[in-house]
Amino acid sequence: MLEEQPTYSLVVEMENAKSIDWSEIGVGLTALAREIAAVSSSGPARPQVIISHGGRDADTTSLRCSITNEAPQLEQVADLIFAACPGGRYYDLKNNGTLSTDGDIVIFIDSDVVPELGWLPTLLDPFQDHEIVCVNGFTYLSYDDFFSRTFALIWFFPMSQGDERFASKRALNANNIAFRRDWIVSHPFAKHYGFKVSCTLLMHELQQEGHKILNVNARVYHYSPRGWRFFYWRALVTGRDTDRKFVELSSPSRTQRIVKSFSRWFTMSWRTIRRVTGHARQTGMPLWQIPFSLVVGLAFYSLAFWGQFSFAVGLVSDEIEVVPDYIGHS
Predict the structure, then answer these.
(1) Claim: this prediction has a pTM higher than 0.85
(2) What structural domains does the chain harbor?
(3) Which of 208, 292, 302, 321 has the fewest CB atoms within 10 Å around its CB?
């Protein structure tokens, strides 16, 4: 007799939806519906999809209408539940959504990613092993112009192809990951002033408890960041978050933090040079654009250095990081 397959729920945060078009959100949700339908045809029960948003309960009607207009297939294959978390930030929405789930497995996927064919079964299959607590998917940036190609080269995600060494060491992807519900409910994403710090702290928790983070080829693409305003802000907040992580996981010593800012600047600058020169042609970037891509990449991590250094020496106070209203597409 075959063992019953674990049930699952999906949590979709809507924080990132603020900075992309609804047509793009619809592409991701339609792909999500396709994946759910494919899995449902082989046995697992109809899942919940928790739409976790930072508005009020009163916003549910308009949000449901938008989703129905852009991805009508989703309601046909899953039970949609809307979970309001007024004023909630990115990780708040994930924690809030988790509380509304009832599946054995909780899958987190963001509103600005698009699953590839086979994403969902690849993410779920390892949970047949009862020792597995966390399955980490493969996220990469899409690209279609000079700046998006540059971001794909210098970003924190591996390239979609030909980047096996980096991909094998990828960190926890909060936008494409699955946990056993009993574990993630008792280990929510930490509340933190940082923008993208809580996923690093959660990864540390997993490792401290001796749990293996299983990396699988469950692939999604993430819409590329766009715009100079985003570039400037994201670089600075990347630096501040790097210092926050160092304080949490290594040392609060101001001297060590300052030294770390310089060593990180050198490391990321050298990494940028290697990745741009080594992978640019793979993205279809013309040869003449490669020097300009290097300049942009080095500028990003120089700004990140300044964010980290200024934070470490106390020139910038520790305040809650939120996406500014002027950011048009993240």
Answers:
(1) yes
(2) 8-222 (3.90.550.10), 228-313 (no CATH)
(3) 208
